[in-house]
Amino acid sequence: MLTPDIARRFVSFWPLQIGGWTLYALATAITVAPYSHTSTEVLGIVAELGSSFLASFFLYFLCRYLWRKGVPLFRALSFCAVVSYALGVACTIASRLTQMHGSDSTLTFDWRFALTEAISVCVTLEGWSAFYFGIKHYQTVGQQKARLLAAEATARDAQLLALHYQLQPHFFFNTLNAISSLVVSNQPLLATEMIARLAALLRNTLSFPDTHTVTLRDELAVVDEYLTIERIRFGSRLRVSVDVSDEANDAQVPRFLLQPLIENAIRHAIAPSSSGGEIIISARLAEQRLQIDVANDTCELEAASTHQSHGVGLANTRARLRQIYGAHNATLVLSGETGRFMASLQLPLITEPVMSSSTAG
């Protein structure tokens, strides 16, 4: 049974292959029709067309291999030109041998004729190669555009989800109560700071720039706004440690990537514990990939794992990673041991922002 990928290639390849060579054969027939040709010459033309058609299949596998290997276009076309000439010589030889076999008169084989005539076949096959790479480029651009459109939709979902985290009654009213307590206890500076942090956090959540990604440094700044509010709420029960290399700080990550992980750590590990716990955020580069780890103390590993494995925020995060980086290029792995839970992200190293589809278009 054909896989969907093979079936798609089958459907797209054969109509173009058959249709293209049929049109080429008709154009050749129209070109040679005004001139009188012997049956031997016609037989040679037909044999050359047939052998060229068969040679294009060999060229198809070669072009597909070069495309998958990511060979630069000029180098790929140059290599195909050399192969096309070799195939052209083979086609010319096949055409001449067919003429010799089907002719009553005595025909001789001339290598100079074969090498010269091979140029026309080479041009045809090289044009076939250029057409193949052109179609592949067009398909790739279409896939990238579709991926950007899907990423924009999921990014908007993530924005709304992040806003939901801030405005849910559990968080919002606790924050307001904390502010009220600070005012009543005559701590206006802390109350003012908490209001400013809350305003900044909501402003960052509501903003939507023309990129799907930001630097890790900017992402951590948003996380810090959130953690500052939570530090005021939990006091010494919440401890945070950040260990991020300078190179990792400049890497691009999806917006609001870390907040669901931090939110889950606080909700399922810090808040239920009377002694609180520590959240450790670390990031580093390894083999052209960005590794981000968010670890937290927990006394109930199984419960925390269950909550964090099936949360809406993590499902949304995984969906965004698939849309932005592809199905297998980015991973989110949850693991734990006694007293510690960790969420590990591995992303391709990107230093330029991923633009939204409206901006890219």
UniProtKB/TrEMBL annotation:
Annotated InterPro entries: Bact_2-comp_sensor_kinase, HATPase_C_sf, Sig_transdc_His_kin_internal
Gene3D superfamilies reported in the protein's UniProt record: Histidine kinase-like ATPase, C-terminal domain
A Pfam family assignment: His_kinase
Keywords: Kinase, Membrane, Transferase, Transmembrane, Transmembrane helix
Kinase as UniProt keyword: yes
Keyword Thylakoid: no
Domain named Signal transduction histidine kinase internal region: residues: 158-238
Superkingdom field: Bacteria
Alphabetized GO MF terms: kinase activity
Transmembrane feature ranges: 12-36, 42-62, 74-95, 115-135
Record PANTHER family: SENSOR HISTIDINE KINASE YPDA, SIGNAL TRANSDUCTION HISTIDINE KINASE INTERNAL REGION DOMAIN-CONTAINING PROTEIN
Annotated protein name in UniProt: Histidine kinase
Organism: Dyella nitratireducens
